[in-house]
Specification:
Strand order of the largest sheet: 5-4-3-6-7-9-8
Largest sheet: 7 strands, mixed
CATH superfamily: Vaccinia Virus protein VP39
CATH topology: Rossmann fold
Shape: globular
Strand content: 15-25%
Number of strands: 9
Number of domains: 1
Structural class: alpha/beta
Length: 304
């Protein structure tokens, strides 16, 4: 149990509809004089990949996929063909898997979550070229199998850092490829973003925008381990901007699949999601997320 003051209470507060302010400025106001911050009790679990398993169906239904251009870049840069073998680490419910499956590639998926694996099998049932093993990558035994490509979408930062770098080299063919993929919300400045940041400061200060750069730091650290390892050479990086629009309802459903939001107590999460939904409805009823989809590629140096 952690006791913290509301971080943004001295400068951010929700304004009632009766206040005579322009429509967009009702959501958040700046106070020039300091005020005493009430003490709130935050019940929070540690964010972990196991949390995703509790929202497997929501994850499948609402999580975004990736632009086609990313997969075209990956396939072209890796030089893989129909004879190539692919292993995916942390397939979730198969968002990225489908892009390879539809292109006819043979893919072995690894997914530790029982419910995520169950839903992934349902999504991938039409593709006999795809198989799935429910296990953690760290504990997976490839036996004598070797692969042309190991890829992971939105998941590799959860892998034990030491094993994350050394094990791919053990399961790849000579000069095999590692491809790491992430979707990243650009979080551009806007009236909508300011309103949402206000909701976080008021209801979940530990997730306020100032502290959420940790996601980028974690991704950069994961990529950096490969970039600086003598076991790999850097091949390429692709960046693919794209957008997706969400209704207020679907946006809070999306947030409900994020590990840091799942780690909130149910009460804090409900309050936060209620405020976010109201804020989006107040300024138009939908929100457009601007993503950058990143693909980082490395070649295994088997003569290292």
């Amino acid at each position: 149990m952690l006791h913290v003051p509301i971080a943004g209470a001295s400068r951010c507060s929700l304004i009632s509809r009766s206040t005579r302010m322009p429509r967009r400025r009702r959501l958040c106001a700046v106070r020039s004089a300091p005020v005493l911050c009430p003490l709130v009790v935050i019940m929070q679990t540690v964010a972990s990949p196991e949390l995703f398993d509790s929202v497997a169906d929501e994850y499948a239904d609402i999580r975004p996929g990736y632009p086609d251009e990313l997969f075209e870049f990956l396939v072209r840069t890796a030089g893989i063909g129909m004879q190539s073998t692919i292993v995916e680490v942390g397939c979730g419910t198969g968002q990225a898997t489908l892009d390879f499956a539809k292109r006819g590639f043979s893919v072995l998926c690894l997914e530790p979550g029982a419910q995520l694996a169950k839903r992934a099998r349902q999504e991938l049932l039409p593709y006999p070229n795809v198989s799935l093993e429910q296990c953690r990558f760290e504990e997976w035994e490839p036996a004598s199998r070797r692969f042309s490509l190991l890829f992971s979408a939105q998941a590799y930062h959860w892998i034990d850092p030491e094993i994350a770098v050394t094990k791919p080299r053990e399961v790849l063919e000579p000069n095999g490829i590692v491809a790491l993929i992430w979707n990243v919300d650009r979080r551009d400045s806007s009236a909508m973003r300011a309103a949402l940041d206000c909701c976080y400061e008021h209801h979940a200060p530990q997730l306020a925008a100032k502290s959420r750069d940790k996601r980028g730091a974690t991704r950069d650290a994961t990529v950096g381990r490969f970039a600086t390892s003598p076991l790999y050479s850097v091949m390429a990086k692709g960046t693919f901007p794209w957008t997706r629009r969400y209704s207020a309802r679907d946006y809070v459903r999306l947030l409900g699949t994020y590990s840091d939001h799942l780690a909130l107590s149910s009460g804090a999460r409900d309050d936060l999601f209620g405020a976010i939904k109201s804020a989006i409805l107040e300024v138009g009823g939908s929100i457009e997320l601007k993503y950058d989809a990143f693909c980082y590629m490395f070649r295994s140096m088997h003569d290292a």
